[in-house]
Amino acid sequence: MKWQPTPDALEKAAQLLKEGKLISFPTETVYGLGALAENDVAVTEIFRRKGRPAKNPLICHFSHRNQFEDFVEIPADHKSFIETYWEKGVSFVLPLKKETLISSKVTAGGSTLAVRVPSHPLAKELLEKVGKPVSAPSANKSMKVSPTCAEDVDEAFPDIPVLDGGACTGGIESSVVDLTTPQPKILRPGLVFPEADPTSSSEELKSPGLLSKHYAPERPVFLNITEPRINQAHITFGPGKKTDLEAGLFNLSPSGDLQEAARNLYRALRDLDQPPFKAITICPLPQEGIGQALQDRLSRAASKVNT
Ligand code: TXA
Ligand code: MG
Predict the structure, then answer these.
(1) Model confidence at 248, in pLDDT bands (50, 70, 90)?
(2) Where are the domains of the chain?
(3) What are phi and psi of 210, to 5 degrees?
(4) From the CA of 176, how far away is ligand 1's center (Å)?
(5) How far is the CA of 138 from the centre of ligand 2 (A)?
(6) Of ligand 1's atoms, which has the minimum distance to the CA of residue 136?
(7) I want to staple 42 with a disulfide (CB 3.0 to 4.6 A). Which of 20, 34, 127, 293 is the partner?
(8) Sign of dihedral through CA atoms 212, 216, 220, 226?
(9) What atom in ligand 1 is closest to the CA of residue 113?
C-alpha cells in the first residue's frame, strides 16, 4: 500500500507504529520494515512476515545519536568513531543497557543492540514523530533482494503501508560495525566504508544474518564472467557496455562510478531475474572501497550455501 509522504501520511504512519503496526519507510540505504522496538508483538510480526529466523537480530533506528545513548553503552574508545559515522550509513553494534524496554526479540536474546541513525529526511521525520526506537530490517522477505523503491516493498507486502520516498540514493544496506571490541570490526561491509578491521571468518558468527544465503534472486548468479552467455542475463560496469533489459543487459555504471553501481545493483538483480533468462552473470568489479560491499552482496547472491 503506497502512501505519498504528505504531512498527514507521516502523522498517520507514526501513530500506527506507536499502536504496534508495521510501516515501511525509505532510508538512504534501502527501504526498512519498521515496528516499535519496545513492542514484543509488533517485533514478532516483523519476523513472521519476513520469514526471518528468530536468531537473527534487528537494527534499531533513531532520529538522533542522543536517542540511542539512552539504550546502549558508549565505550569511551569509540566515541570519536561514533561521532564520525553516526549519520553516515553505518550501524553500530554496542552493549545493550541492562535495564531496557527493547524487546528481547530485537536482539535475538543477545546482550548487544545494533543502532543506526538514517540520514533520509522522511525516515528522520517519521522517527522524530514516533520518538521511540524503531526496529527495521530491510523490507524484503527473508533471503530475497532488499527493496530500493516503494514498488519493490509493495510487491512483497501489499497490505503494509509504505511511505513512498522514490528510489534510495545508496542502494545497498548500511555497514554493520561491532564496537564491543577494542578495535571497530566490520561485520557487514556496506554503503560507507569506515576505517576498521575487516571481519575474520570466525567473527562473522557475531552477525547471524550474514551466514545465510542472502540478497538472492531466484535465478542462479555467476560471478566474474566477462562476456554475455546465451539465455543468461549479464551485468556489466564501465564504459562501452549498454543497458537493454529485453536483451538481458544491465550496465551498473557506464561512467565506472562504484556509488552509482551500488545504487543500481539490487535494481539490476531484480529486473534481470525474469524469463526467458535462466541465470544472471556479472563481470568482475573493482575491489576498492564500496566495491568490497558489492562483492560481498554478489558472493552471497551466488552462494550455493543455504543455511
Ligand atoms: O541499511 C540497513 O541496515 C537496512 C535499513 C532498513 O536500515 N536494514 C537492514 O537490516 O539491512 P537487516 O535486518 O536486513 O540486516 C541487519 C544485519 C543482519 O545481518 C543482522 O544479523 C545484523 O545486522 N545485526 C543486527 N543486530 C545485530 C547485533 N546485535 N549484533 C550483530 N549483528 C547484528
Ligand atoms: Mg536484510
Answers:
(1) very high
(2) 2-188, 221-301
(3) -85, -10
(4) 7
(5) 4
(6) 6
(7) 20
(8) negative
(9) 29
CATH number of the 2-188 domain:
3.90.870.10
Q: Where are the alpha helices (DSSP H) in the chain?
A: 7-18, 40-50, 65-68, 79-85, 121-130, 150-156, 258-271, 290-302
* Cα angle, residue 300 at apex, residues 294 and 305 outer, rounded to 5°: 170
pLDDT at 205: 44
pTM reported for the whole predicted model: 0.94
Q: Is the shortest distance between the CB of 116 and ligand 1 below 6 Å? A: yes
pLDDT of residue 193: 76
Lowest mean pLDDT of 26-35, 211-220, 222-231, name the range. Answer: 211-220
140 CB within 6 A, ligand 1: no
Cα distance between residue 185 and residue 183, in whole Å? 6
Q: Which grid cell is 85?
A: 559515522
> Could you give the 3-state DSSP secondary structure of residue 269?
helix
> For ligand 1, is residue 113 a contact (CB within 6 Å)?
yes
pLDDT at 195: 72
Query: CA geometry: angle at 112 spanning 160 and 156, to 5°?
Result: 20
Q: Is the CB of 206 under 6 A from ligand 1?
A: yes
Residues 6+ apart with CB under 8 A from 65: 82, 86, 87, 117
- Give the sign of the dihedral formed by CA 259, CA 263, CA 266, CA 271: negative
| Cell 538522533 sits on residue | 64
What does the pLDDT read at residue 269? 96
CATH 3.10.180.10 fits 221-301, yes or no: no
Residue nearest to atom 32 of ligand 1 (CA): 207
Q: Is the CB of 209 under 6 A from ligand 1?
A: yes
Averaged pLDDT, 11-31: 98
Q: How far apart are CA 241 and CA 183, in angstroms?
A: 41
Residue with the smallest CA separation from ligand 1 atom 13 is 137
Q: Indicate if 221-301 has the same CATH topology as 2-188.
A: no
